[in-house]
Design brief:
It contains no helices and eleven strands. The mean pLDDT is 96. It is an all-beta fold.
């Protein structure tokens, strides 16, 4: 059974940093593209960042480019999201997701990701 467990969320002031982690089990981690998505109250889920199986290629949403960095450690079956210069509009529940395959999807709506974590809350105060 596949499990994705996010951690590292919390309350931070604007301008601060957080590092999210997502530990995966029950799958061959290196066979999966990993992604981070977020959903704010009253809003639809949105793509944040994704990384290929070996970490050689990443993609981030324009809203977080230059502030957030996605990375992975295949030896630890873990994907990370380093979030710097946080803004109140980054407040959301953050989810990690796994997509079978080696290359980034052409569509970032999340529909091609087969496994999802339960999410971790990130709250940025102004």
């Amino acid at each position: 059974q596949v499990h994705l467990v996010e951690s590292g969320g919390g309350l931070v002031q604007a301008g601060g940093s957080l590092r999210l982690s997502c530990a995966a089990s029950g799958l061959t981690f290196s066979n999966y593209v990993m992604g981070w998505f977020r959903q704010a109250p009253g809003k639809e889920r949105e793509f944040v960042a994704a990384i290929t199986w070996n970490g050689d290629n990443t993609h981030a949403a324009d809203s977080v480019k230059g502030r957030f960095t996605i990375s992975r450690d295949n030896a630890k079956n873990t994907v990370y999201l380093q979030m710097n210069s946080l803004k109140p509009e980054d407040t959301a529940v953050y989810y990690c997701a796994a997509r079978l395959g080696y290359y980034l999807p052409t569509n970032n709506n999340g529909q091609s990701y087969g496994y999802w974590g339960q999410g971790t809350q990130v709250t940025v105060s102004s």
